[in-house]
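Deviations from the work plan: none for this task. Representative record:
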Amino acid sequence: MTEIALESGALSLPAVVIHGGAGEFGRSSAPAELAILTDGLLAALAAGFEMFVGGGGALEAAVTAVASLESSGIFNAGRGAVATSEGTVETDAAVMDGNSGAAGAICAATWPQSPIRAAQAVMALGGPSNGPILLAGPGADRFCEAADLARRDPASLTGEGVAPVSRTGTVGAIAVDLEGHLAAATSTGGRLGQLPGRVGDSPILGAGTWADDRTVAVSATGEGESFIVAGFAHRVDWAISAGEPLEVAVGTALEVVRARGGNGGAIALTKNGQFCVAFDTYAMARGWRDATGATVRPIRADR
Amino acid sequence: MTEIALESGALSLPAVVIHGGAGEFGRSSAPAELAILTDGLLAALAAGFEMFVGGGGALEAAVTAVASLESSGIFNAGRGAVATSEGTVETDAAVMDGNSGAAGAICAATWPQSPIRAAQAVMALGGPSNGPILLAGPGADRFCEAADLARRDPASLTGEGVAPVSRTGTVGAIAVDLEGHLAAATSTGGRLGQLPGRVGDSPILGAGTWADDRTVAVSATGEGESFIVAGFAHRVDWAISAGEPLEVAVGTALEVVRARGGNGGAIALTKNGQFCVAFDTYAMARGWRDATGATVRPIRADR
């Protein structure tokens, strides 16, 4: 198994960190394909950071960055979502506000053009104890319709005209605003050829998505089942609360995923701007941006 | 808010601990209604423990106890599941094997007569990294149909002939076998009048359900959204792994749920037979059984 690659650093506030999935893409990719990924990541960083410029907070930045990745069509989320074993498209997404603890998620949804906007709309229904957090299946679809959310073109699968470079490319964004508030957002089309109804870690709070101002914001990607039974994002959260350095917390949690038989990667960010990227695949599309600039890397730095 | 009631003790191996939900039931219940609850709990303890007698392990005991609670029709799970705002019934369930780390879950499912058996069938599809863990909505239903699982009577809601004493009565069971292996199982009909598609903490591993031989088996009940954003079961898990006493771990996790605006209760069990019940509602239907006998309590001991 490939060793874990770790990258970390300090960003000035506000900042946004994104990923476009961990996997084996890039190993034999043409430079043009890597350029498409790079452009998609840069566009998402720009869209997310633009929210700060407009006075928005971490939640708006994370959701907007994910929405950009979804609409690009080059990642496995939103417009680029891969098909199930029956050729249908089912999407999952979650968002969490580290300040209020509010969260929203959808799974096995077919309606929304932007699953992360649908998750945000669920979050808007209420707080932790006042409204639903997770809507699944037809109930999620009807909620989206009633909320007037834009509908996915029912005929659209991964377009023939767009190279889906990142076949395992769940997307995610984490952000910290000037006040030190954190947010996390994750969106996915699931696994290519998955059983209809299968839901991975992305919409599961504490597995693929988590944000708490007191600890960390996390978005994961990879073999979702292993991230679920590893309790991945919660594990990062409690390690930070126990005083572990960010890199150790994320690396150790990824080791637990590996012990559970899976692999993948994650991004994590604290309220003081410390961030970490960890993955044990050949590639992980990722990037970060603050007022001082932007960095984007589609594959392993050591390859 | 009601203070947290804590009960704990030591059971000999093998043992099973169950709950039939936390809530306000029992406050004005007739003795006959409490007798119905008591009988339902005793029957489930008997069914679960019988698995040990037949040579079964913790997983069989936990699933069988929950299946008994589901089929009784007097709890909010399986046959007794409450209706959504549209009069439909959607069920959620999860099971986790503390020995292998394997897990299975369904949510927003309408097909299965026994949601916990459906979750067990999903678990049988594969391990953490080999197959799906969570199936949602129509995909879950079609999986159940293809697996030849018994179908819920589509016309059946909470029967008029059966008093659903426990309106918030998610059910759950945790078990430890002679080898010290743990398992957890939880099943629910959701909230009465909930938005179709709404999924609470029961099928979310790390929120309402968790089992790991190295730490603890947990099944929760209550205001599911708060248990999700509290990361309830994971929080118990890591507290145990950090060396906290079981009562402290469960009580502290429930305090986090309360801080998130919710309430409810949980049962927890370690591989040496230490168990704990915690709840902050008027009542929590609960019971435990080992070779030395059975205890069942439908409401608070101090009322």
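The mean pLDDT of chain B is 92.
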